[in-house]
Amino acid sequence: MDVYEAVATRRAVRAFDGTPVPHEVLARLLRAASRAPSGGNLQPWHVYVVTGEPLAQLKKRTAERVAAGDPGDEREYTMYPPDLPSPYRERRSAAAAQRYRGIPRDDAAARQAAVARNWDCFGAPAALFCYLDRTMGAAQWADAGMYLQTVMLLLRAEGLDNCPQMAWSVYRTTVAEVVSPPERLILFCGMSIGYADPAASQERIERAPMAETVTFLG
Fold first, then answer.
1. 158: closest CA among 166, 146, 150?
2. What would the pLDDT profile of 5-30 be if each residue is shown by its tens digit?
C-alpha cells in the first residue's frame, strides 16, 4: 500500500471485528513511527499499548462509571474553543450529523449509547494511549499529532484500522489506574486499533473542498 492509498483509506473506524493484532506488528509500526517529525528531536510523546486482560479491565471499569451516571473527570485541556466561529462550527455540526445519522436528535438515550461505545473501544482488541509531559507547549502537542498521524498511516500499511479518541481524556483517571503513568504526564488521547468489521456500516466523514483550506501563490 503506497502513502496515497493509506491516506485515502484512513478513517475513524467505529466497529471492529475483535481479531487479535499480533504484538510484533504493533512493535514494528511503532518503531517506524518514531521517525515522525519532532522539533528539536524532543519526541514528546509517551505511548502505552494496551491489549488482553488490561484492556478488558479498562473497558469494564469505564463501563461501570458510565452505567453509574459518572459524568467523567474534570478536563485537563479544552478539546474545542468554546465559541467556534464559522466555518469550523458548521464543519463540526455536519460531522456530527453524519456520524449520528439515523438517530433522532431528541433521542438522548440512543445518542448516549453511541457515545458509550467509545469506552469499549468499538470492539477493538488493542488500544494506544498517548501522553505528553505537562511541561510541553503547543509546538510539542503538534509534534504528537504528527506522530499519531504517522502511526495511523502505518496501521493502514499493515492492513489495520483505527479510531483516534480524545474522548478517553474524559475518563483519564480510569486509564491511569490501568497504565500507571507518572504524574508528570497528561493524557492527550486514546486510539482503538484492530480490523474493521466488514459487516458494519462505516461512516466516512466528508472533508471541506480544498479551495476552503489551501491558497496557491505564484
1. 150
2. 999 999 999 999 999 999 999 999 99
d(CA 91, CA 195): 28
16 three-class SS: strand
Contact 98, 197 (CB under 8 A): no
Query: Can you list the alpha helix ranges (DSSP code H) found in 15-69?
Result: 23-33, 52-67
Select from 140, 126, 169, 136 the least CA-distant residue to 30. Answer: 126
The Cβ of residue 44 has, within 10 Å, a number of other Cβ atoms equal to: 22
Strand partners, 185: 133
Nearest to 128 by CA among 39, 17, 9, 33: 33
Cα–Cα distance, 152 to 154 (Å, whole number)? 5
Smallest Cα–Cα separation from 77: which of 212, 216, 186, 213? 186
Most distant CA atoms of the chain, gap in Å: 59
At 157 the pLDDT is: 97
ω into 71 cis (within 30 of 0) = no
Q: What cell was used for 25?
A: 506488528
pLDDT tens digit sequence for 78-104: 999 999 999 999 999 888 888 777 677
